[in-house]
Fold this sequence. Notes:
Layout: E1 8-11, H1 17-24, H2 27-38, E2 42-49, E3 52-60, H3 67-72, E4 78-84, H4 93-107, E5 112-118, H5 122-130, E6 134-135, E7 141-148, E8 154-167, H6 181-187, E9 196-197, H7 199-209, E10 222-226, H8 230-237, E11 240-245, E12 248-251, E13 263-268, E14 271-279, E15 285-287, E16 295-297, H9 298-301, E17 302-304, E18 310-312, H10 314-321, H11 331-340, H12 346-359, H13 364-371
Helix pairs in contact: 7-10, 10-12, 12-13
Amino acid sequence: MxxxxxxxxxxxxxxxxxxxxxAMGQREFFTxxxxxxxxxxxxxxxxxxxxxxxxxxxxxxxxxxxxxxxRVFPGVPVLNHLEVTPRLQRRGIGxxxxxxxxxxxxxxxxxxxxxxVGLDNPDARRLYERLDYHDWGQGPIVTRWxxxxxxxxxxxxxxxxxxxxxxxxxxxxxxxxxxxPLEITRRLADVQRPWHVAGGWALDLxxxxxxxxxxxxxxxxxxxxxxxxxxxFVDALGLKPYGAHAGAIWxxxxxxxxxxVRQVWMAEDGSYRTDMFLEAGGDRTWVxxxxxxxxQPMSQxxxxxxxxxxxxxxxxxxxxxxGAPRGVPxxxxxxxxxxxxxxxxxxxRGWLDSALAVARPDHPWRTELRNVRVR
Length: 375
């Protein structure tokens, strides 16, 4: 929806305080945020229509108050205090304020923007989702703040929120035009460091090698490489790398990803071609990232197709699928297990059961593995 004609959004200054308080109340809040804006600690953005304040939003650029945000997204700004005059809600003003806040974050050199949405506010969540904000995948957190109590004092307020993330300088999250594994094998033919196809494509390659046809279509292509060889693969592929973590995607440039970042999406002409997993085991050892007690020599974990495509063996690929993304298999992972488990030999089924016994001893796949009817 287009905002009302004549809507203006600009950074607040000291002279706006009276109009803000008259329209929205909250004198202490606006006095504080205008001061922080003058100190470049944030940016209070105000929407004006016909000379009157009709909404506002604040870009918080200081250290986040929530420890979970500081751990996962250090230095990333937060959009908060989005409000629109009730009589003018659902007319595009909130969306315009969000876009203005994103532009202010970009101007300050940020590639990612965070916000929190109350668990009891599904309408706001739907708005953010329409604007390409994504859940960070880490579960709800509690945010706290101080506000006037109406009696001349203050009170502490706590709210359970979901964290949502916008990527401000990356192709759209669904902008996938993935290569076939044969294409990436060709491009990496001269690379001397080990790598392999992972995820659903790994299962599909194994399935086809057994003469069973295709499992399903794939939207992306996941490969795994040694973390220490990151620059080697970036140079060999000739694609633009984007860090991908907790719902955020951002351009890496020449930077090596921080240790907590495991995925790098590689793009060309605005489309993602492959998702690179940065593995901790080096060139010789495969390590299960969710439980480093589970490991084996790379020579045992990786197989090759007749065309020379290296791929993760199905029992290890299913181990990853047993807990993605929040400890609960997705529908497609359940379908992959149902198709692949009956085709595994005794050794592969035994290895998967043993690995699950370590990582997720109560996982229902353990019972299914013991009861599966081998084809």
